[in-house]
Amino acid sequence: MSIDFFNSPCRESARKEKLFGICDDQDGKKAYTNTSDPERWIARVINNPSHEIAFTAIDHCTTVNKEGTNDQESTCDGMLTFEDSLYLVELKNQQSGGWIPDATKQLENTIKLLQRHHNLAEYKYLKAFVCNRKHPRFKTIENSTNKAFFDRTKFRLDVQANIAIKK
What we know:
Elements: E1 19-23, E2 32-34, E3 41-46, E4 54-57, E5 78-82, E6 85-92, H1 99-117, E7 125-132, H2 143-153, E8 156-159, E9 162-164
Parallel strand pairs: 3-9, 6-7, 7-8
Antiparallel strand pairs: 1-2, 1-3, 4-5, 5-6
């Protein structure tokens, strides 16, 4: 059975604001974007070029079961799509613990599912973001970890709460 991640009822209308947030209230509901309450934001999208960016919630919205079971696949919170770019986003609100490896696994699994159900060739820029409200500053990842993630997925990995749209 094919899953369509791009034509989902969880796809929000595209927005052009120069700054908006991505929220996850950690209540078992899907992630969403917001412009009015920065205190709720886990990730900040800085859209200086004012591109039309669509956010699509994945976790708690697009149900993908593990093959042959009723167990759900682990997926990231959502994705941003604009022009020829696809950015996956995993939102965390943890002070300590293994939040980076956990988030990276969720992103990698989502990428695997996307690649199984879609041809991503139309996207020139593929990025995966781990965003944590408790650790908003850029967290350095070893080059070898970054390269291994890219080699496995063809996505660049960033760990920071600011998602800068540059082109």
